[in-house]
Amino acid sequence: MQFVLSDPSLHWRDLWFLLQGAGHTLWVTLVAGLLGTLGGILLGWMRFGSVWLRWFTAPYVDVVRSVPMIIQLILANSFLALSGLGVNAFWLSVLVLSSSMAVVTSEVVRGGLEAVPPTYRRAARSLGINWLQEFCHISAPLALRTSFAAWVGLLLGLAKDSALVSVVGYVEYMKSTQILITRTHEALLLLLGVGLFYFVICYPVSRYSARLERRMAL
Amino acid sequence: MFGYTFYWSLVWDAIPELLAGAWLTVQLAALSMLLGTVFGLPLAVARRQGEGRAYRLATAWVELARNTPTLFQIYMMYFGLGALGIQISSYWAVLIALTFNNTGYLAEIFRGGLAGIARQQLAAARSLGLNQRQGYLHVVFPQLLRIVFPGYVTQAVWAMLNTSLGMLVGLQELSGAAQSAQSVSFRSFEFFLITALIYYVIAKLIEFGARAVFWRWLRT
């Protein structure tokens, strides 16, 4: 019997494998970005509105910002393995990425809400609209204006951080590149592909965000 | 659900290795911040010119550093250079990549700070007989430090956290040390919990140290 070793050189079909990885990167970024943003808006609003809640959520915010993402991923992975809950690599990645996204978003949201002059808020309330209407029609639009560009920056940070989720076994673009490097030893070519991939996504968006920031400056 | 017994004694035995790793983490963070500052300052000045070769080089550096993952930059130094036949140790790969990364971010922080210093200050320095370099060194940069201080400290914490990526190229910094220490027993949860705690303490030490420095020397 003859053993057939897999052909170590790069093939066109590897491109399909890379594309799948790229799709996974975008997908995990999108889902974590969405959940993290919603969570972050809620957390930021809570932290803005109540001193008690700010004090209560401070340890969480503090820890997430002071422990490396990679350690958070490994810890979440071992914790879920111990707990016996069957969570797959994708949702585990989404959990950790969105928790980090929520924390950084909450700071931006809080900053945005704090930038709304209290006099506006009081004026709105004295005109007879309730706090929810005030939030929806006065505070939120003004806060959005000041914090949108920063939020776009956070989203780009999230896209770049998603390159780390391979440590818990989710095969996104970076990991699929690594797998191909192990087989083909075409490290430079494949890595340049990685750089190009992230740059092509991040650069136009960051340029757009910088322009927006200048235009929206109050 | 949690039929798990914690074995802390294993972690306790590995504390010397973890602390050695933590020292390497601190060292890498400090060196990459120092070098990032040294390269970032001229880059920020070049970025303000808005034209010319220096401006284009600085812009390319800043955009590349900020728009690609740090992990990619480390892999590029370690595996990418390796493919070109240039073998460097994981220590140098991480140091060079993190310096490249920090320089890009710090240059933008400095550029933002420079915008807050009136251009006339440099002209005044020149008219007092200082040359361009002296003007920046003795007049502009000392003021810049005070303006950018909060952003600078955030970046320092971030640089420290980023050293954890060294683990993925086999460097024995804090995460890497924890990774090899736990591989004997596979008690990964205990080990990484303590690792997280050490990172937290280092981050807090940086923040409190920075606050002390600000209070002592930079307060106006």
UniProtKB/TrEMBL annotation, chain A:
Q: Which Gene3D superfamilies match?
A: MetI-like
Alphabetic keyword roster: Amino-acid transport, Cell membrane, Membrane, Transmembrane, Transmembrane helix, Transport
Q: What is the top-level taxon of the source organism? A: Bacteria
The UniProt entry lists membrane topology as: Multi-pass membrane protein
Quick one: where is this thing mainly located? membrane
Give the residue spans that cross the bilayer. Answer: 26-48, 69-91, 148-171, 187-206
Q: Enumerate the subcellular locations listed in this protein's record, separating them with semicolons.
A: Cell inner membrane; Cell membrane
Question: Can you give the residue ranges of the ABC transmembrane type-1 domain?
Answer: 22-209
Q: Which family does it belong to?
A: Belongs to the binding-protein-dependent transport system permease family. HisMQ subfamily.
What protein name applies here? Amino acid ABC transporter permease
From TrEMBL, chain B:
Q: Where in the cell is it found?
A: Cell inner membrane; Cell membrane
Q: Where is the ABC transmembrane type-1 domain?
A: 22-210
What UniProt keywords apply to this chain's record, in alphabetical order? Amino-acid transport, Cell membrane, Membrane, Transmembrane, Transmembrane helix, Transport
Q: Name one Pfam family in it.
A: BPD_transp_1
According to its UniProt record, where is this protein mainly located?
A: membrane
Q: Which residues cross the membrane?
A: 20-46, 75-100, 191-214
Question: What is this protein's record name?
Answer: Amino acid ABC transporter permease
The source organism is Pseudomonas typographi
